[in-house]
Amino acid sequence: MSPLLLAAGSGYLLGALPFGYVIARAHGVNIFEVGSKNPGATNVLRVLGKGPGYLAFGLDAVKGIVATGWPLWLVAADAITLAQIVGLVAALIGHSFSCFTRFKGGKGVATVAGGFVVMAPWAVLIALAVWVLTFYSTRYVSLASILAAVALPVSSIFLHQPLPVIVMIAIIAGFVIFRHRANVVRLCQGTEHKFVKQPPTNHEP
Q1: Which domain holds residue 14?
Q2: For the whole prediction, is pTM greater than 0.85?
Q3: Read out DSSP for 33-81?
């Protein structure tokens, strides 16, 4: 099988694994019916607390790490970067439109971050710093994610990443921002909710 086809197929299936949904169901909660109704780690954290939320974030990040990490050992040197790009893009699509949850999914921040840890670790550190500073100064997860997404391609340029990696980062960052378009509208209108832990409302008996 072509390495790129393998990267695309495995990346999508990895990304589609609905860890947030599974973790919430293990706690008797349908994550699609509570909080923001998003199966991503932020909503799991908001609804179920730090333990389940951090676990969801970590597992979602691992999807990106694996999707971009395996080509380092199994793909010819001249095709590694392209296989990583294809794998991460496919993982992001899988996470956002999971075949296991009727093509509903999260916004891909954790999965993208995991992939970029392998491909552009210093850019990720800068973006992480932007996220932390924004979140703790505003308590808006969406704004922190958007600004971190902007910081990734900008810092990649200044860190002289390979051009294909910069282009890929810019495209994925744009996709992440697009997935936050409803949050952007609410931020502009002043109606976006700040992060506050909410108790679950639909525990099953």
Answers
A1: 1-111
A2: no
A3: GSTTS--SHHHHHHHH-HHHHHHHHHHHHHHHHHHHHTHHHHS-GGGHH
